[in-house]
Amino acid sequence: LADVHNQSCRAFYALASQGHLDLLPKGSSRRTRLLHGALACLGVSGPGLSPEQLGALGALVCDMEPSTIPASHPRVLENLKLCAALSGAQRAALNALLLRGATGYGPPSSWDLRSLQRLGTLVLSLNQTLWGSVAEEVRKAFRRRILATYRGQDGSQRERSLALLGALASAPPPPRRRAKRSAEGCQVKPIDSSTLFDPFLTLYYDSNEQFDLCLTDEALRNNLALLLEQPLTMDFLGIVKRRLGKLYPEGIPEEQLKELGLLAQYYTAEEISTWMVTSSDTLLALFNPLFGTWKAPQARQLITRYLHLGGALTGPLLQTIGGRTLCNLDEEHISCITPEAIGCAGPLDISSCSQAKKNQLYSKAQQAFAGQAGTPAYYSLIQPYLGGAPAKDLKDLAKTGIAMDIDTFTALNPEELQKLSVMDVKNLLGINLPDLKLVENLPAVINWIRRQDQWELDHILGIGLQGGIVKPSPTGPATPATFTPSATIVPTTAVLATTALPTGTTINSHTALGSSSSTHVSPTASTITPTPPHAHSSLSSTGGSPAITSRFTTRPAPVPSSTSPCSVHPATTSMTTKS
């Protein structure tokens, strides 16, 4: 962002606002800097935003304060449609703005089905008060549209649809006279095998009482999966759960457990502890992602129950339950996972695991992928588990020419990170080394920097990290001697490191101050590389003027042609600089 200049900032932020901002965690320093840079570029000084500013900010508005919503031009609603989720305060501000009717949508009482469709994802944020202002016929038409598409939706879409149906069902109904309960029970369609294929079935039951009366035991016993395919509200699901308990007082049979679908997640951990989950097929069915995400306590209890009954966590099971659920298990249960299962599971997100569990899983992954060690594929296989890797393995990995991304680097074991040298880190990150500067304020990175030689941070990494150890010179001063070779001797360190010279060559030069220097290249080497001043430099005093003697390490290199600009005449076998 420091390279974004005033003359080009508007174009830059307009493009950035169209990106997938959720790749940057909400509240992260990088995402916050992006928003602040955009606001400064556009000259935003108060909470209100003009149409032009809203057009340029795009989804960046999602990170602004709730007061921005009512203070801005009504076009802000189009920006809010781009938000993955709104905070509670943002939703309250949105509902207040819509209730006023001062937007292009008009007052909610005038809305029709097209109005609700135009609102897009914002309908997920409407509260009961606002839904109560929408005409009942419009709400029914909207429910019918949701029900018509429900069966073809994936898990996340079904979650949104059920949330909408729940909000619509909780809206205040118009006043009506309560019908007397009939002695004959169900007054509309009975819920049985003949009616369960109707996608609009739930529209016929405008009360929990009617749904309960019309739900047959035959549907629960023989068509449970089909029943639960219906978009049932939480109240209706509660009725199904109660009726199943009455139908199976000794516990739900395992074959029926496989068909619980979304309803399974409404059981408590204590209730789950009595289930007979002995088959991996049952566990796979219960963790089907189509039915959404389990809460941690229930998921842990379900897997623990399965393991206590003799089950084993296979690769397909690990892949289905996911790394986050795996991290909630006890260490003793993780120890039972075989390396073969890890090898078949695919990449798992174990970022939420404790360090001890990361260490366990890394050890198993290392065994699983041992046959791939040394191949280009090894890093991609072992990468999800590197949070548990010891420093020795990380050092070995650094020698293979990988380019570790900064998120993987910052997820390494902090204690093992401290054992890595500057060169280890440079080789680990490869082309991603500049990203280390972006995370220099993370505690683990700060501690690592403090353990390193500042000269190495400056000259090996060269990305501006500060806070390393400044080693004293041999004579005792706190600041090391500054080593700056004359530009006429060797222009830059890069030249020293890469320029080949004939054997027996000496470099002579005279500076403007009359100082002279010479460098001899031994017969076995023709590339010279300077070492840090504090490593091989000594200070002496001759006639009141300090004399610095610096040594150079050498390594073999090909002899250049006679036209090389660095070709000079042979001379002595040492280099001394006096000034």
Structure, explained:
The protein is mainly alpha-helical. Among the domains are: 1-85, no CATH class; 389-471, no CATH class. The chain contains 31 helices and seven strands. The chain has helices spanning 9-16, 29-42, 51-57, 68-71, 76-80, 88-100, 113-119, 128-133, 136-149, 155-170, 208-214, 217-222, 224-228, 234-247, 254-257, 269-272, 280-286, 296-308, 315-327, 331-334, 339-345, 355-368, 376-382, 391-398, 406-410, 414-417, 422-429, 443-450, 454-461, 493-498, 533-536; strands at 506-510, 516-520, 527-530, 537-542, 545-550, 552-555, 577-578. It has a three-stranded antiparallel β-sheet with strand order 4-5-7. A two-stranded antiparallel sheet has the order 1-2. A two-stranded antiparallel ribbon has the order 3-6. A hairpin with a 2-residue loop joins strand 4 and strand 5 (545-550). Helix 9 (136-149) packs antiparallel against helix 10, helix 19 packs across helix 21 (339-345) and helix 21 (339-345) crosses helix 22 (355-368). The protein is flat.
